[in-house]
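Following up on my earlier thread - several people asked me to post the actual chain instead of describing it. Fair enough. Here it is, all 189 residues.
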Amino acid sequence: MVLGTALTALGAPQARAAEAPETAARAVNDVSRYCTACWRNARLPPDCWGDCTQEVLSRLLQRIPTANWDRLLQTEGEERQEFLRAIDAVKKRTQRGLKRSCALGGVVKDPRDEHERELAEEREAVRLAANEVLSARQQRILQFSLEGWSVQDIAEVMRLPAERISDEKYKAVRKLRAYLCGPGKALES
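Reply from S.P.:
Thanks for posting it. Predicted structure:
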């Protein structure tokens, strides 16, 4: 609000005479709304949106005459480029500040890291088990299957009937279950 009042008081005397106060207020309101959308899209915390908008308005006051503010959102030109540069600079500065403040003296654990680590360990256990109990053909069939290949595609690549591929895959899965889970649990699944 204070900055909006200052805007009408700041321009050159001829600009103030020609520009109606409601036009200046509308331009400030439009710029503020545009900035708010930018902060939302950049996923900045809502409690810093006002400060970021004030900083953009301050930069605009230094670089663009207030009489030209009503055209910032309407036309391409040097003023609009300056406006977009101001938004980008404020956004990046704020994001860098947030990254630094998030450190909080240590690294924040990402729960996805633990999940990915567990998956990698499980895959490694299955790979080791496959090396122990499966034939080379069964290992290859399971690898293709894990990569998303269909039975038909595997059959074409390996030059075997699809029924044979399906049977080998079934036997490989049963062997792995029996090896990893024990004989009683392999039959339950």
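The two ends are 67 Å apart (CA to CA). That should answer part of your original question.
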